[in-house]
Amino acid sequence: MKLTVVDHPLVQHKLAILRDKNTGSKDFRELMEEVSMLMAYEAMRDLELDPVTIETPLTSMTAHVLSGKKLALVAILRAGLIMVDGILKLVPAARVGHIGLYRDPQTLNPVEYYAKLPEDIGGRRVFLTDPMLATAGSAVHAIDVLKQRGASQIKLMSIIAAPEGVERVRKAHPDVDIVVAAVDEYLNDHGYIVPGLGDAGDRIYGTK
């Protein structure tokens, strides 16, 4: 498993505003999309390219375009949706899937209530989005679902991760790379990342 921390100054600047408890839902949503889009540049660095011949206003040349390898963006509901929205601005042709999970407040284990994926998910490079990689229960379960449906090239994208979450994904799915903007200090007794940014879903949608 490869862990990539996107430490670009623009990402870190926007992440600081995301963490601030005084940042309202409107700005929080916009920043989440922007950070996700910036992170996608790094997450998709290894996409394959094919040479093509094009005509510029001056001459012909060999340029490079994305190969025919198909992409899928899969959001872990609900908070993962906002990341998909940002990434789609870069790869609008990607198919989108959804996996609905919620965390049992007592056991902290994920409970699946919905899964809708592209029929050809097994033939696509999958980018799984979940803003907070905390206990990693949801991420591990979602990866299980993807693999059961035939997906073999999966990359997990999270804004903030806890060391415990990274380690859990590494043990359960060592073939899945992780791309984050930060790895924070630890999980508290309630399973929240510290210092973190609170509950991403509540801050995105203005709920409690």
UniProtKB/TrEMBL annotation:
One of its GO terms (molecular function) is GTP binding. One of its GO terms (cellular component) is cytoplasm. Its cofactor is Mg(2+). Its EC number is 2.4.2.9. Uracil binds at I193, G198, D199, A200. Coiled coil: none annotated. Keywords: Allosteric enzyme, Glycosyltransferase, GTP-binding, Magnesium, Nucleotide-binding, Transferase. InterPro entries: PRTase-like, PRTase_dom, Upp_B, UPRT, UPRTase/APRTase. Allosterically activated by GTP. Pathway: Pyrimidine metabolism; UMP biosynthesis via salvage pathway; UMP from uracil: step 1/1. 5-phospho-alpha-D-ribose 1-diphosphate binds at R78, R103, D130, P131, M132, L133, A134, T135, A136, G137, S138, D199. One of its GO terms (biological process) is uracil salvage. It holds the Pfam family UPRTase. CDD domains: PRTases_typeI (cd06223). The keyword Protease does not apply. It comes from the Bacteria. Residues 5-207 form the Phosphoribosyltransferase domain. Binds 1 Mg(2+) ion per subunit. The magnesium is bound as Mg-PRPP. Catalyzes the conversion of uracil and 5-phospho-alpha-D-ribose 1-diphosphate (PRPP) to UMP and diphosphate. Belongs to the UPRTase family. This is Uracil phosphoribosyltransferase.
